[in-house]
Amino acid sequence: MNIGIVCYPTFGGSGVVATELAKGLANRGHNLHIISYAQPARLDSFRTDITYHEVDLSTYPLFEFPPYDLALANMMVNLIQFANLDILHVHYAIPHATSAYLAKQILNSKASKVPVITTLHGTDITLIGSDPTYKQVVDFSINQSDGVTAVSEYLKNETYRLFDIEKEIRVIPNFIDLERFKKSKKEHFKKAICPEGEKIVTHVSNFREVKRVTDVVEAFSKILSNGVPAKLLMVGDGPERPKAEQKCRSLGICNHVRFLGKQEQVEEVLSISDLFMIPSGSETFGLAALEAMSCSVPIVSSNIGGLPEVNIHGETGFLCELGDIECLGNCATKILSDENLHAKMAAGARRRAEFFEMDKVVTVYEEYYGEIQSAM
């Protein structure tokens, strides 16, 4: 099949999943066309079966902001016509699903047999859902899609709660490359960071407010005060980083914390980690947690959104109520100070990650494409 995949190029979950899905489909012999306004972070090698198309955003004095949705629709029209797309799969509802509908209207009957599948990832529903500015557009665009998927049961239920959706939403979870994300021997790396054999706690995110990075720092301080020698690795960057750095200073723990910025090979950091902390205020799936679990790292997370579907309390780690710093710190301490418990949860984390193995989920998407095509 000739498959078009539309995504954002950022380090966030939707861009990562879309790009990795494209790679998985290409490995099965399909021709992929990835469409975005910049090259996605995970599209990091040349392949003859994956073509990247950059949406050109021309600037005019009339426009304060270039109309990306219109330029994207025009790109979709060109690819449907000249790349003979069999499927157009858009990740994130706004504006991708809207642009896809416009493209099909422009082509009219010529595009009637090209199904549009919209995958909902999270903030396109949970944040925009609370903003009446876009609600009717989101309602219409999702309902006009030929197929709709969501990455978790939580997100599916939230979509039905927040919007007037008539379409069936199929849950197809995020997935993981078990070969890439597995624990590897990096003792020299760990020794450089922890010369005294300290435990390593890791957090990975885009450092937005919803990720609650200051909670990570406070909970880590609790680990230290509980008598566990440890280092905290903060991977990523974003608007909340200065607050997290200031929190380290105010707590007097800067010597125990390293801010590593964005890391392309995050699996190398996860391989030396003893615990992963993700206290998010909103998380529709928790791809960062899944990547850590695949590297046999136990999780301490907030008990919200899709996280309980990934992190099984008492088996792969622990769940805490949102904002409960005491719980986060004490649960982390419990895992880090009990070697038997740590080993049990590390093994449980890897087993749970295997449920989301990439090839299994790519098969589900491939079958769903065929199902939607047959229904056209």
Lay out the secondary structure:
Blueprint: E1 2-6, H1 13-26, E2 31-36, E3 50-54, H2 68-82, E4 87-91, H3 93-107, E5 116-120, H4 123-126, H5 135-144, E6 147-150, H6 153-162, E7 169-171, H7 187-193, E8 199-205, H8 213-225, E9 230-236, H9 241-251, E10 257-261, H10 266-271, E11 275-278, H11 287-294, E12 299-302, H12 307-310, E13 317-320, H13 325-336, H14 339-354, H15 358-375
Parallel strand pairs: 1-2, 1-4, 2-3, 4-5, 5-6, 6-7, 8-9, 8-11, 9-10, 11-12, 12-13
Helix pairs in contact: 2-3, 3-5, 8-9, 8-13, 11-14
Number of helices: 15
Pick out the low-confidence regions.
Answer: none
Q: Give the full name of the CATH homologous superfamily of the largest domain.
A: Glycogen Phosphorylase B
- The shape, in one word, is elongated
Q: In terms of structural class, how would the helical and strand content be classed?
A: alpha/beta
- Write down the CATH topology of the largest domain: Rossmann fold
N- to C-terminal separation?
16 Å
Order of helices and strands: EHEEHEHEHHEHEHEHEHEHEHEHEHHH
The domain tally reads 2
- Can you give the mean pLDDT? 92
Strand fraction: 15-25%
3D structure, described in words:
- The chain is an alpha/beta fold and 376 residues long.
- The protein contains 15 helices and 13 strands.
- The two termini are 16 Å apart.
- The mean pLDDT is 92.
